[in-house]
Design goal:
By secondary structure, the protein is α+β, with helices and mostly antiparallel strands. Strand 4 and strand 5 form a beta hairpin. It is about 30% helix and about 35% strand. The N and C termini lie far apart (about 40 Å). The longest helix is centred in the middle third of the chain and has 23 residues. The chain contains 3 helices and 6 strands; from the N terminus they run E-E-E-H-E-E-H-H-E. The protein has 2 domains: about 30 residues, no CATH class; about 100 residues, GMP Synthetase, Chain A, domain 3. It comes from Pseudoduganella plicata. This is OsmC family protein. InterPro entries: KH_dom-like_a/b (IPR015946), OsmC/Ohr_fam (IPR003718), OsmC/Ohrsf (IPR036102).
Length: about 140
Amino acid sequence: MEVKVSWNGPSGMSFRAQTGSGHMVTMDGAPEGGGHNLAPRPMEMVLLGTGGCTAYDVVLILKRGRADVRGCDVTLQAERAETDPKVFTKINFHFVVTGRDLKPEAVERAVSLSHDKYCSASIMLAKTAEFTHSVEIVEV
């Protein structure tokens, strides 16, 4: 896996990133840090990636278990250290899983397997952050 991040120039703190799969992402800094607030911050991208990683796992695990899953949203709320390096210290994951006849124990198992075994991003972040999670199941 490879990505390339390039500074957009001296007029701010905006960067463009290209993934190995050919996708482009823009990142920017906060105005107080020289940015223009035109794109997500790099640490927001870390949270986004973690949310995507764990949601992907939860859906895949449920589908493999033949659950009739129709949707999966995860909201991450994080706290960071006050001093540098400002690592994540607490992250709460709130999952809203939509489907038909979903078993709460199957959804909880999928979340736990993601956090403990499959999601590389959350496993890395667990080295510095305390994790909590909640699950809401919506019947359709």
